[in-house]
Predict the 3D structure of the following.
Amino acid sequence: MAFLIRTIDFTAAGREIVRDRVAEQASLTVGRAAECDIHLPDLAVEQQHVRITTAADGTLAVEALGTLGFALDGRVVMDGVIDPRTGGEIALGAARLAVAREADGRTIITIRQIATDEGKGDTLRGFALASALPSKRAMSWVLAGAILLLLLLVPVASHLTRTPAKPDPTGKTPGTVLLDSAWTSGELSLKHHDLEDNCESCHVAAFESVQDETCISCHKDTGDHAPMGRLAKGSPALSPGDALQWRIAQGFGKEGPLGCVSCHSEHEGPKRQQAGGEAFCSDCHNTLDTRLTDTALANAHDFGKGHPQFRPAYYASFGAAKPVRAAPGAKPVERSGLVFPHDVHMDARGGAARMAVSLGQYGKPLECKDCHSLNADKIGFKEVRMEDSCEACHSLVSGRGVGGFTKLRHGDVKDLAEDLARISSGPRASAGPARQRPGQIGSGAPAYRADFGRPVRAYIGLSNALSAGGVCTECHLPTRGPTGQADLMPVNLPDRFLTSGYFNHEAHKKEKCTDCHAADTSKAAADLLIPDLKSCRECHLGATAVKTKKIVPSDCAMCHAYHLPAGQWTGLGSPKGPAPHYKPPPPAKTTVAAIAAKTKP
Amino acid sequence: MATSAKGPANTRFRQDEKRRDSDHVSFLKHRGFRWLWIALALSAASIAGYVLIDQEPRPNGGTWYGYTLGTIGLGLILWLSLLGVRKRRINPGAWSLKAWTSAHVYLGLSLIVVGTLHTGFQIGWNVHTLAYVLMLLVIATGIYGVIVYATLPASLSANRKEMTRAQMLDALTAIDRQLESAAQPLGRAEADLVIAALGQDVFHGGAWGRLTGSYPRCATTRALNGMGGHSDETARVAALLAKRREQLAQIRGALRIRALLEVWLFIHIPLTIALIAALAAHVISVFYYW
């Protein structure tokens, strides 16, 4: 068995010196001692460090002779086996002994010195993940910079340098601030959804909360609940916590608890503004008289338990200029100027019913809706027009004219006088087309007997029509004018009787009219047929009432609105409620046109 | 210093006890889970306030309670991010890094509650939700970090098999030297394969390779697969390549565990800084468009 021991050294100039020698023996010792077969002058190597022995199967057994191990293929061991066909490397100090088998079967051991620690620290750094990823600091700067630039600096800079756009209630004007859509804290309410792209329309100045004047610049028609001073006086004192909160908020420029945004908070999603609950109203109205001592309003807090009696508006005297509101609980006598017994007209077996049955226009006994038709707002009713609702029975036909019947005009006594005068002076209809011969009577038209009739209408004077028993007084009350002439009482009926609340007739269409309005038993027009609180309470109780098949828990907003004038709250309990029941009448001009008109000199 | 013999000894004993305690108790269990209890109390108080305090018209970040939660959250986030400053300041003082870390972990977790309640569960495509999502990501990576710190170091030492990182690299170098000489008799094609294997960086594969342990372009594996012929020379090179691949596998195992241990910080830290930027934008924008 022979080993070829090849030592590779380098001269100072870097030239390689290769020395070969052959050791004809079965085992070798390696160490610092001079007598070792392989002598390694390295203090890190022991005197007798390792023995390499050839085993019977040709492999080499390597064992440490002392207590210090050696590295075999990089791993520190005390003994190991090298298959020379595959090879192995023993590391002792700075020496590397590469073991391999030559083609001639000899085992060659190549000894080479390596420079230790060549950049090992740097290499070890490769184990850290940091060597494979961009640095945390760089990533931080990039991310933070991008966020600050896009989400803060760009919007702020473009807000500061923009030309402020005029507020546009239609929402057609897009905002000029860049990227501020990223600042939104939620979608706007349904009514404001058009303003989604124009933040500056509400957020006018930087670091200033939305101001009332900004709201009012569009919502010009929205009335205050009451004048601000009275509102403040009527509100109960804030709790210490709320007071502190508002003091802080006002310190930062927020408008107080009576500002628009304290109720109308925005960015809560595409919903409609919810009505304030019962507590919202009763906070003030429960004990309003203790703070607003001069108020005409009675206290209220719960429709079922604490609500004043209705005070319908009505005309208390004939020809009054304005309606008055009934005293609570009084039984008002309405002076509308009309003669109209409801019971006669509503009696299904009475004369009025018979007459209606005989007329093609009705064909059956009269019903309420034959005269009373709902307004589009479903709250009030259209004016009853004599021509539409009365004249079919209460005819004003005065005679036969050229084109058909002539009739007296309704509505103005002067017109009536003219029409009557024309009848009196106008040509009488001839009895026949020509002179008649005896025996022709009854054989041709017009009827012979017409000539014998009482000339009633032709000779009715004005005073006859207007005085008691005259045609006008079937429905109207006769009176005397300022100069003593015959005249009629003017008809006075308010447009709405319950002026502070909204009663939706459409919502009650399952009820019969007479369930609430005692029209079928009313014998005179002086009866005010507005139901009282009690009749409402049969179904409607306060918000805290338990809902049953009959009982409807009703908060204030079911009938009342906050802003006056304003419409009825809608969509109670559901974010997307039905279409509004009531819309305030549109202003004469659109807002834009009104602005344009005002700017003209 | 001529003080009584008992005094200094006693002080010394107490100091040692203190150090022993701080040396051997996990930061999670620090002082009987003190910070866990504080964090739980904070979360419970936040939830109780959220449930009990009636916010009109609905809870959101703009009510007084929302502002309160937001201020607490902002303060916590800024303080938690100061851990990076604190751990670099190795100076004496009555501040224990372990207590600080313990508080960092538990108060950071309580931010999930505080931050979520601050949102009032209103989420959208905006800077506010961006800050919230960044916060959640930072917390999630932090949770991951705590878990891997508790579990992975054991497997890291198991993978090492009593070798240091330097030894692993040495072993690879030893194999490489042998490969170099063993490959001398090979033909051009095989020699090129060996050159490619030797030339490839030990740490080849990038972050993804490290995290997944998948190295489809490993030149050593390719060389091993491409070693044709059945001569003694190629068999020897193949055997060495197989050894090299094994050694690489150990190194890559170490890399993988190391990467899994460290990767969360590469999200946690940049996202924390991004979160602070987003918070600045969030707070300023809210009051800019008040």
About this structure: Chain A touches chain B through 64 residues (CB under 8 Å). The longest helix of chain A spans residues 136-161.
